[in-house]
Amino acid sequence: MNRKKNEIDPEQIVRVIVLLEESEIPESGRPTRAAQTRMLRAQKAVQRRSRKKVLGGAALTVQNSYCTLTNGFSADVTYAQLKEIRELDSVEAAFISPTFELEPSMTTSNQMVGGGMYNTTGYTGEGTVVAILDTGVDLDHELFAAAPKTRASRRPTSRRCWKRTT
Fold this sequence. Notes:
4 helices, alpha+beta, disordered C terminus, 16% strand
């Protein structure tokens, strides 16, 4: 079978994001624990239908669950299975998740985090515990501007963030 230059092999494994039709995401603030529990149950139901109707009973490799910014999950499936998942009840949208591999730039990262100023103090850091605080998602980043335009993926406010379950 001859495929076009940019066509994806139907058997290629891809990471997908599946967004559900029903969502209890408030316009501001976070969803309640009860709402998150209901959204997680709905996600599990779609995952069961995916295993049964799309994967023929095989396991679905779920990577993440989202119930703070949107109601959905990510999983690894073949490209052909992605097309079938889009047709399942309760699925508003399903698309290939963008992935990125970035190499750290040691020539600029030290300056960016202010690391150089402590190298002249004589302290080695031995015995020090370090905590990294992630301040969240940069919603103004260009990657979010290209998100699918669906009701379930409307632009979130900065007070909400993704929930990672793995």
